[in-house]
Amino acid sequence: MAFVLKDRVKETTTTTGTGAVSLDGETGGFQDFSSAIGNTNTTYYAIVHQSLDEWEVGIGTYGSASNNLTRTTLLSSSTGSAVNFSAGTKDVFVTLPASQVVHTSASPSFENVSISGTLTVGGIVSVGGSLVGTSATFDDKVSVSALAVTGITSIGGSLVGTSATFSNHVSSSTLAVTGITSIGGSLVGTSATFDDHVSVSSMTVTGNVTATQYYGGGGNLTGVQATSAGIATNVSGGYAVLTSAQISGNVSIGGGLYVHTSVGIGVASPLGQIHIAKNAIADIVSLTDGANVSLSFKNGQNFSLTLAGNRTLDNPTQCVPGQVGSIFIIQDGTGSRTLSYGTSWEFPAGTAPTLSTSAAAVDRLDYIVRTSTAVQSVLSKEYS
User: Fold this and answer.
1) In the prediction, which pLDDT does 229 show?
2) What is the pLDDT of residues 11-23, one digit of tens each?
3) Which one, of 147, 178, 142, 176, lies nearest residue 162 by Cα?
4) What is the C-alpha separation between 351 and 47, in angstroms, rounded?
5) CA 344 to CA 369: how far, in whole Å?
6) Alpha-carbon radius of gyration of the chain
7) Per residue in 44-79, pLDDT tens?
8) Domains contained in the chain, number
9) Do 265 and 293 share a domain, yes or no?
């Protein structure tokens, strides 16, 4: 049994009721069902009463033994159900139902598309196979397994697919591609998600960009999250997650930076978690003089304090075990100022040291944080 469509197939019937119709022969200039459709084959049919408002469209099966057409599947009718045809002559002919016509619409769907010129689609586009062409403009969403466009591509909605290749500029409000994505020009949009490699000369995205891997060949990377990156120039943004990165330009990160293994600064193969080739600098932060001097280790490592009277150095806050640094304690022009200490400060033999008394004398209190409430310290005196 096969589905058969032929042109100019038409017969008449006088059968009544809702069952199969007996065919009475073709009308002048038309083919009959027996020669055109064939035994046990199916086709689209229409039955139309010649004098009453009774009609039906469906899929029928022709049987040569009884020369009849069985009304197998109803597609549409004058009553909304199988028509109970009245007495009188009816035309029976092969037709193409409107519901079965393939045509473009606001939401066209294609299996495989190859376009040598320009494709412009106003609605949602779903392409089951690959879309290949010289340029494409989409006013709404695009879903495609593989997209390769050699010209300028503009996508008003989102692009979702397994792979995409663009040899020129791409403008998209949302870009989500699970496969390899290659963009010869610039990528401009509000957000983009890449599950695989991305190669792009420049990328400007106002929203979030998530990529498992990123390689930028000399362009700038702004506000991008990726698991690996090779970047020839600048990186800036509030959030960066990289399993490996080689950056020859500046790095500016507004948020936190977490490095899983090691950092080498001026060193290609770090010998420790942090390995620098030259100097490291921690600023000296001035403390505010007062009867009780407060200190937060979150504000720095090295501090300076000029005493204008007898003072107490309160217990420091934000104590993280392992932090080290120094506090420069300076006598004012009068000298002989004393300094007491909060209970978190610990000294050798449990005895707090006595400061130098000369005017403008400089002592240095070196410390290491042992616990959040224990800061071990030692005083070196009379540096000037």
Assistant:
1) 54
2) 999 999 999 999 9
3) 178
4) 112
5) 10
6) 42
7) 999 999 999 999 999 999 999 999 999 999 999 999
8) 3
9) no
37 vs 11: CA distance, rounded Å: 12
- pLDDT of 110 reads 63
Which residues are bridge partners to 137 per DSSP? 120, 154
Residue 298 backbone dihedrals phi, psi, to 5 degrees: -70, -25
Position 147 scores a pLDDT of 74
Residue pair 90/12 in contact (Cβ under 8 Å)? The answer is yes
- 343 and 270 in a single domain? The answer is no
Give the chain's residues under pLDDT 50.
Answer: 217-218
Cβ(88)–Cβ(14) under 8 Å? yes
Separation CA 244–CA 273 (nearest Å): 14
Q: Which residue has the tokens 């699970």?
A: 178
Q: Is residue 59 part of a domain?
A: yes
Check whether residue 81 and residue 125 sit in a common domain: no
Q: According to the model, what pLDDT value does residue 345 have?
A: 98
Same domain, 211 and 350: no
Which residue, 274, 306, 337, sits at the end of a domain? Answer: 274
Range of the domain at 37: 10-99
Residue 3 lies in a domain: no
* Nearest Cα to Cα of residue 246 among 271, 226, 254, 212: 226
- Copy the structure tokens of residue 177: 């591609």
Comparing CA positions, the residue from 359, 279, 374 lying closest to residue 321 is 374
* SS3 per residue for the chain: CCECCCCCEEEEECCCECCCEECCCECCCCECHHHHCCCCCEEEEEEEECCCCCEEEEEEEEECCCCEEEEEEEEEECCCCCCCECCCCEEEEECCCHHHCCCCCCCCEECCEECCCEEEECCCEEEEEEEEECEEEECCCEEEEEEEECCCEEEEEEEEEEEEEECCCEEEEEEEECCCEEEEEEEEECEEEECCCEEEEEEEECCCEEECCEEECCCCEECEEECEEEECCCEEECCCCCCEEEECCCEEECCCCCCCCCEEECCCCCCCCEEECCCCCCCEEECCCCCEECCEHHHCCEEEEEECCCEEECCCECCCCCCEEEEEEEECCCCCCCEEECCCEECHHHCCCCCCCCCCCEEEEEEEEEECCEEEEEEECCCC
| Residue 45: per-residue pLDDT | 97
Q: Is residue 323 part of a domain?
A: yes
Query: Same structural domain for residues 268 and 288?
Result: no
